[in-house]
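Q: Got a minute? One more chain.
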Amino acid sequence: MTFDLQPGYDDQPDLQPIVLALRDYLSGELADYERAHDLGPESPFDRSVLQPVWKRSRELGFYGIHLPPEYGGRGLTNTELAVLKEEVGASGRALFHCVLGDMGGPLRAGAIFEHATPAQIERYLRPVVEGERACCFSLTEPDAGSDVRAMRTTATPDGDGWRLSGHKVFSTAGPFADFAVLVARMAGEEAYSAFLVDLDADGCQVDAGDIPLSGQHIEADIVLDDCYVGPDQLLGAMGEGLRIGLGRVTTNRLLHCPTILGHARRLLEVTIEHARSRRVSGGTLADLQSIQHKIADMATAYYAARSMTYDALAALDQGRRPSMEAFMCKLFVAENAFRIADEAMQIHGKAGMVRGSEVEWLFRRLRMFRVLTGSSEIQKNGIAKALLR
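A: Always. Here it is, folded:
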């Protein structure tokens, strides 16, 4: 893998036209849409703003592109999907997460197709793929984060169905989702099951969640009070909730990295542009060796993080299970992307620290990634256990 801030993908003739079309959409039509609606990454998004982007992205072939052809996708490999995720992450668009379906769309729902019944696919999943509905995952609770077995949300038998009671937090896309894939403890058992919960059902309340460091209005609390779910809403077999909720962990861990790499790439691009144009002491920032060294370090860290991520993805596509490598990638990408953001802010100076500037927002978002989807310390635990067992 060679270094290029604008990869051409000449060696991937099937993927190259998709990448070029995606870049055109991101920098053209989607950018125009955001300007017309005065949207930034911290704007409160409602369904009326997001759904047109879902449906237009679907029309262009991007929304759910990773899915098999029977669901309107192209059956992309993990590596090919990663390329597209990196592109949207590098776009600088506020709605980057809507184009491929990260935000309540097919990228979030695709992992559960293998567990869903044909009826569940038609009722819940196919409308998500078509941009008609949205979903969220609800696993985390106020006192159950990394230790998911500490969850208190319970499913109590009621005839053929169950009554759910509990409180879920950090349900990303919850504010505009139609249903949740929700994991609950079976009452009186040390077993967990997954359910498809309609968010407008009696006994289910969706509250605005805490606003994270990134300022994005994308989180919801889901409060359940004796909410009934029928047998047709059980996802997979009883007792398989954690396997479903935590399944594909290696794949998901790796596929979070390309978006973050895209953000790091965007920071490199805007920092290089700033260094070339910012006048200081009769020259530009780019003339200063101290700035040159910072940019060299940023580019080297990006290249190393990207290389190891795509190497692990290639192994995954070959049928291997690079579990330890996935821990390493999440750790290395998270830590180095944040270092890149920190240097970008240092080089931009005051302009990079102003609320609302792109550098400042990416700094905050990349700081979060050192904790989200498993903190760096959790990744180190996984690496050490794999090496020492």
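A: The first helix runs from residue 16 to 27.
Q: Perfect, thanks.
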